[in-house]
Write a structure and sequence with these properties.
277 residues; mainly alpha; 10 helices; cell membrane; Type II secretion protein F; T2SS_GspF_sf
């Protein structure tokens, strides 16, 4: 039983280390250090259960490690590209908010009043962040500082452009703010359309990644359940090392397939949104 526990411990350690090395966009100040969400904890528990099941079936510590890693990573490879969908929704929401600000400003309201008035009707993908911005304005925070916090929360290139225009307007350089917001909203919608076309062209790559990954997993599961004798050489120490190497090669291939099927995020405009304006 100790080799199984050792394999599960190694799997959990690698999962935690990989999560710590994964780059994330900055979050809100109150949640910036809350790295593990309930979804992450659930995934970790399911991965541990998958590793335990693989260990019980094979009695191999490396099987526990590879099984836990597969259960942790494969749903993101085989599942829908939620990050892309979230990015598209955020871009559309930023465009709609820019138009709301433009229309509210045309009624002769000031910028701070426009932000406060549009917060309750801002599209849902960015409503929480815009509501926090409006609350900071009501609490007396300097508008440029509150806008920088918004850029940090959203971590989006299109939002950076809107924040830059609003920051310049707050610094009494906003004579053309309405025209700028109109142009930025149009740019955001064009960017969303471009990303959608790119995602459509990469759909075939994602489908191929799902087919290759699913076939590989099904083949390994079939060998374990139906032809254990073929896998007997892997029960030795040398076999375990070879199995670890083969698993690492497969993991690298799966990662490459997933990486090539994703739509890359363009670089941000405000590389240090929390810094001085």
């Amino acid at each position: 039983m100790s080799p199984i526990l050792l394999g599960l411990g190694c799997a959990a350690g690698l999962v935690v280390a990989a999560d710590g090395l994964r780059r994330r966009p900055p979050g809100t100040p109150g949640r910036r250090h809350a790295r593990w969400t309930s979804t992450d904890r659930t995934r970790l528990m399911v991965a541990a259960a998958g590793g335990l099941a693989a260990a019980l079936l094979t009695r191999w510590p490396v099987a526990a490690l590879l099984g836990a890693a597969a259960v942790w990573a494969l749903p993101r490879i085989l599942g829908p590209d939620r990050e892309h969908a979230h990015a598209l929704a955020r871009i559309e929401a930023v465009a709609s908010w820019a138009e709301l600000l433009r229309d509210t400003l045309s009624s002769a309201a000031g910028l701070e009043q426009a932000i406060t008035a549009t917060a309750p009707v801002t599209p849902k993908p960015i409503r929480t962040q815009v509501t926090a911005l409006a609350q900071a304005v009501r609490d007396g925070a300097r508008l440029p500082d509150a806008l920088h916090a918004l850029a940090t929360d959203l971590a989006d290139p299109v939002a950076d452009l809107v924040v830059r225009a609003l920051t310049q307007a707050a610094g009494h350089h906003g004579g053309q703010l309405s025209q700028s917001l109109t142009s930025l909203a149009a740019t955001a919608r064009e960017l969303a359309a471009i990303r959608m076309r790119i995602a459509t062209k990469r759909a075939a790559t994602r489908t191929a990644a799902r087919v290759i990954t699913g076939t590989s997993v099904a083949m390994v599961a079939g060998l374990i359940l139906l032809n254990r004798g073929f896998l007997t050489p892997y029960g030795t120490l040398t076999g375990q090392l070879v199995l670890l190497l083969v698993g690492a090669i497969f993991a690298g291939g799966f990662w490459w397939l997933a990486h090539t099927s994703r739509v890359p995020q363009p670089p941000r405009v405000l590389t240090n949104p929390g810094g001085p304006a």
